[in-house]
Specification:
alpha+beta; six-stranded mixed beta sheet; 6 strands; 33% helix; NAT9-like; GNAT_dom; Acyl_CoA_acyltransferase
Length: 172
């Protein structure tokens, strides 16, 4: 989603950044792992297909993706350049927006629900609270009014923020 293209969220353990071209090769490397493919329900892609997917996700109005960086705690929070360069990629966190219509009333405006998911792909960063913090930060971001950007489309402006009661989880 273009709405988060310049958004960086800094937490205690993680830094969330938009999924950009510079992340694709590492992400592609992760997604070659058969166990991650099975856990995420993903099919292997070529590197060229992964670059296409990154562009698609960046421009798609019904999903929002952040790369999860494992925050380098030796870097001060206000030194964003150092945080971004010294915090390694650990995974990603996403929300998929689904519009649900009331079947009984065709004239109603659809309700937008958010389905969230998180993946900590790097084994060394698992079981350290990164996924928990990344999900909490994303929940806060999507349920509060983000600052609109000049290129925010009308559809994006209608999606965010969404009420916390419209967040859902799917457990498989």
């Amino acid at each position: 989603m273009r709405q988060n293209r310049a958004t960086v969220l800094v937490g205690e353990r993680v830094v969330l950044v938009p999924y950009r071209k510079q992340h694709v090769s590492k992400y592609h490397e992760w997604m070659q792992d058969a166990s991650l493919q099975q856990l995420t329900g993903s099919e292997p892609l070529t590197l060229a297909e992964e670059y296409e997917m990154q562009q698609s996700w960046r421009n798609d109005e019904d999903k929002l993706t952040f790369i999860v960086l494992a925050r380098d705690r030796d870097v001060k929070q206000d030194d964003l350049a150092a945080l971004l360069s010294r915090s390694p990629m650990a995974g990603d966190v996403n929300v998929f927006f689904n519009q649900v219509y009331d079947d009984d009333d065709e004239d109603t405006v659809p309700l937008t629900y958010g389905e969230m998911e998180v993946m900590i792909a790097e084994p060394t960063f698992r079981r350290k609270g990164l996924a928990d913090e990344a999900l909490r930060m994303l929940m806060y971001y999507i349920t509060t009014a983000p600052t609109p950007t000049p290129d925010t489309t009308p559809a994006e402006a209608q999606v965010l923020p969404i009420p916390p009661t419209r967040l859902m989880v799917r457990i498989e």
